[in-house]
């Protein structure tokens, strides 16, 4: 049955109508203890969802919707290796990557856990060798810089996690990330590096992604221009991929390849060998902690009752705003500079997973799906776009994320940071007192409040807790995709642009006539003119 016409959906519609005119402040007046009552704590993660436009009845109805949609069965199907990615004929088993070594998870009758552990052990040996200097460059020098070349899920996860965990990373190694086909990205990443002490990790599930292969080829040329001997590639390039054939075709020794599998989606692949650069940075034990944290959240998602289940609740609250209050966007506001790449990571996770208008049965969906996810760390955002959050005409539910204990000794900074986080959620929910002063300014200075937010607090930002929070959002996205009935694990919407870009690239380099619409033809023409006049190339890396 389509979610739209289900009894719980109808009940939520009528409940929404009943709530029109009720303010968040009214809800706190009726239930003064609502803050603690609407807080869930699990293994170092706290979710306070009290500053939402919800009552206990709302939560009951949302849980009923999840039950009607058989969310619990969906969760079990995912963990059990069912073929949930229907359009690509694949299981969805990123959770197996962080399962304990003794677990049994089967895909087509084959237990995948020993394969996962085998690759993890190889990664650990390699990471330890790079960190200790046992793995060295072709000229015998110690590796000082690791450059991960990948894009999308082969970049955003490790890049975000490395930023988050730099305080846990080795000072002896610099880790950089290159993703964009824009050559400035590679040129900047290579700037100042010594080829003799640089290791490239080429990360691509398919190993056919144009951006990654183009960057990897240019990096190889950069290396060979300095060290000369093609045999050096074996000491300076390793690959992470699910496609051994393409890795070999590229010229990377399969012995230097770390494998993962087609049942790991790109945006869910941080836990696989795609995390190699992070493991080299923070060490094998730190990476095991990241996996353990994610596994802890997996256990919570799988076993906690729906009404006390953090990812389920976050997902249902998102459905509530997206479908019953027409919220088009969702802000994610980490009050921690180390999480500065989390919003970008969550954009891919959420929007590539659930930005769909066709359901699992191939029919048009009848309701809104993934919101636009965006955000910046606090307090920077406060001095930029918070004006709109407080007084604009767009309704933006927000997730605030704070970390109780920082990894620096600047106590006043942290007190101020956390004070700002709490102040913002308070101001958004309750608004301000009626302004005084000149009457003509009062309307401008009024803070209406009644703008909802969740607050997520982490005990600290360790690999373990980072693992938890990423898995939390993965499962939130799963919950929503399941409710909306879409396949959260394919991404057909990215294909057309790739095909057209290849065609236009071929036209540009072959100087062929452009056969597109008049706008595209004219734009290509302008580029051709600029391309063919004047010198434009500088040497990469200088
Ligand atoms: O184009 C989108 C996408 O397929 C993402 O889903 C994926 O994370 C990214 O490209 C990179 O793919 P790959 O790891 O195969 O290079």
TrEMBL record:
SUPFAM superfamilies: SIS domain
Group of enzyme by EC: isomerase
InterPro entries xref list: G6P_Isomerase (IPR001672), G6P_Isomerase_C (IPR023096), Phosphoglucose_isomerase_CS (IPR018189), SIS_dom_sf (IPR046348), SIS_PGI_1 (IPR035476), SIS_PGI_2 (IPR035482)
EC number, UniProt record: 5.3.1.9
Pathways per UniProt: Carbohydrate degradation; glycolysis; D-glyceraldehyde 3-phosphate and glycerone phosphate from D-glucose: step 2/4; Carbohydrate biosynthesis; gluconeogenesis
Keyword Metal-binding tagged: no
Record's subcellular location: Cytoplasm
Domain of life: Bacteria
The protein, known as: Glucose-6-phosphate isomerase
